[in-house]
Amino acid sequence: MSTQADTHTDNAAYYIPEPSRWPIIAVFGMFMLFLGLVLSINKMGLAGSLIMVTGFAVLAHLMHGWFGAVIDENLSGKYNGQVDRSFRQGMFWFITSEAAFFVTFFGCLFYLRNITLPWLGGDGQLATSNILWEGFQYNWPLLNLPDADTTKYVPAKEAMGPWGLPLLNTIILLSSGVTLTWAHWGLKKNNNQQLVRGLIMTITLGTIFFFVQGYEYWHAHHAMDLTLNAGVYGSTFYMLTGFHGLHVTIGTIMLIVIAVRSARHHFTEHNHFAFEAVAWYWHFVDVVWIALFIFVYWL
C-alpha cells in the first residue's frame, strides 16, 4: 500500500500490529449473515431477514474499521519494503485462490457436459439412456426435467444466448479494464486528475454491468422461465454468473474506496500498492467473465 512518505527502507523494523478485535467481529458477522440466509431460504419469516441484515451491518462496520486501521498504519509510515512485499504476496495468493474457486466450477461444467451427461445419455457403447428417465437423450443445454411434476415445475423455454445482454456486458466490462489502465497511467505520470477520472469511469461501468446483469436475471426468470430449477443448465448458469456478479460487486466497492483515497492524494507515483491490488483483482474479474461468456453463454 502507498504512504505519504516514499522513503521506506528494508532496514527498518518489520511492522507487527497489535492484537486486533477485527477477526472476531468478522467471524461473528459472517455467522449472522449465513445463519440469516439459511433461515430465509427455509422460509423462517422475519427472523431470518433481520439476522441477515444484522450480519451485513456487522460486516460493513468491519470493513470500515479494519480497512481504516490499515490505511492509518499505511499513511503514518509504519510499512517498509518488506511489508510491501508481504502485501503483494498475500494479494497474489488471494487471487490464486479465487482462480482455483472458479476453475472448480468450470471443471464441474466440463464434467457435466463432456462426461456425465453423455454417459447417462448412452453415448458410445453404453446402454444407459434409461437411468434418468425413459428414453433420455442427451443434448446441451439440458434445460428441463421431463419426469418432474409439471403442476409444480415450470420447464424453461430456452437457454440464455450470447449476443444480447451478455455481449453488451462483455463490452462494458472490457471497457472498464481499459479505463482502469488509463487511470493507472495517470498515477504513473503523477496526474491525479486522470487517476480519479479513470477510477470514476471504471466504477460507473462496473455499476452498469451490475444492473444489466440484474435485468438479465429478471428477463430470464419472467420471459424464459429459466430458474435454478431449470435442469442442470439453470443451476450451473446462476452459480457461475452469480458468483462472478458477487465479485464484480466486491470489486466495485474496492474501487470506490480507492477513488476516495486517490481524491485525497494518498498515492504517489512510486508508492501505490493499494491501487495495484484492486487493479489486479478487477482484471482477474474481467478474465473470468471472458471465460464465462465463451463457455456458459456461447458454446
Would you mind describing this structure in some detail?
The protein is mainly alpha-helical. It contains 7 helices and no strands. Helix 5 runs antiparallel to helix 6 and helix 6 packs antiparallel against helix 7 (273-298). It is globular and about 70 Å long.
Number of helices: 7
How large, in whole angstroms, is the Cα Rg? 23 Å
Structure class: mainly alpha
Q: Would you count the extended β strands for me?
A: 0
Could you list the spans in which at least 5 consecutive residues all have pLDDT below 50? 1-7
Assign a percent range to the helix content. 55-70%
Shape: globular
- CA(first)-CA(last) distance: 41 Å
Give the biggest sheet. Answer: none
Give me the strand/helix succession.
Answer: HHHHHHH
Strand residues, percent? under 5%
Rounded average pLDDT: 83
Keywords, separated by commas or semicolons:
299 residues, mainly alpha, disordered N terminus
In short:
This protein is mainly α and 299 residues long. It contains seven helices and no strands.
Question: Secondary-structure map with pairings?
Answer:
Layout: H1 22-41, H2 46-75, H3 81-120, H4 165-188, H5 192-222, H6 231-263, H7 273-298
